Amino acid sequence: MSSQPIGVFDSGLGGLTAVKQLRAIMPHENIVYFGDTGRVPYGNRSVATISRYAKQDARFLLSHDVKMVIAACGTVSSTVLDLSDVLPVPYINVIAPTAAAAVKATKNKRVGVIGTRATIGSCAYKKEIEKIDPEIMVIQRECPLFVPIVEEGFISPDDPIAKLTVERYLKEIKEQQVDTVILGCTHYPILKPVIGEYVGEDVRLIDSGKETAIYASKLLGEKGLLNSSDAEGECSFFVSDRTDDFASIASIFLQSNIGENVDRVEIWDY
Fold this sequence. Notes:
It is a single chain. Helix content is 41%, strand content 17%. It has 2 domains: 6-93 and 210-269, Rossmann fold, CATH 3.40.50.1860; 95-208, Rossmann fold. The protein is an alpha/beta fold. It is globular. The two termini are 29 Å apart.
């Protein structure tokens, strides 16, 4: 059993939705979170740049003696599939567990995938789904405005900006009569009420952060690395840019107050 923390990184703050799920599923685990707010977004970068950033993010987490690294970033997960050359600990991304959950959920074999330009351009979810079940039709849609909408707080089901943007992006997916939609960016679960209202209650929304947290718990258990402590786990938060408004934005993702528990990191040093 291990009290070492789980390391989680994302291009910004969206990965905090994964942290929320990790805390719910494994409340005794310690977590170190890094959000690369100084270089966000990753979704519009080249694969080479995303790879370089991801390795720096992972190396920072390793400096905190983590027992596992989770890429909560959909863009990193879909474009940088292998970080084993810099990681001596188990590494997981959001693609495989989320795709498996979508395959299990769909009844009509029509699955929608929404994500950043890099995620959709990589076809990572599509390839993984078709590897499991070639008969499933995958309809993809990039939704680049969802991230800034969430971070600006336009998240209410009644917010006209959120509603219009969701309708604009998901119109084609809805017309294809999918019964399952993968929320392929960790920002997107914040918009789940708006998305759910538009696509309808019969459409299953797959939260990549939740599915990854479930898989992480299973893997840690198999490797004997779960924390045996009965105490509530602690979370440490790090960003690569200003920290002054982190707490207020983080509360949107975590649905809890973290106070001033955040530090700035010179990520280029890693």
